[in-house]
Amino acid sequence: MKQKLSRKALLAKRKRDLAYALTPRRRRMKAENQRKRRAYIKKHGKNSLKGKDYDHNCKCFTTVKKNRSKTKTTNNTK
Question: H-type helices in 1-78, by residue range?
Answer without folding.
Answer: 7-21, 24-44, 64-67
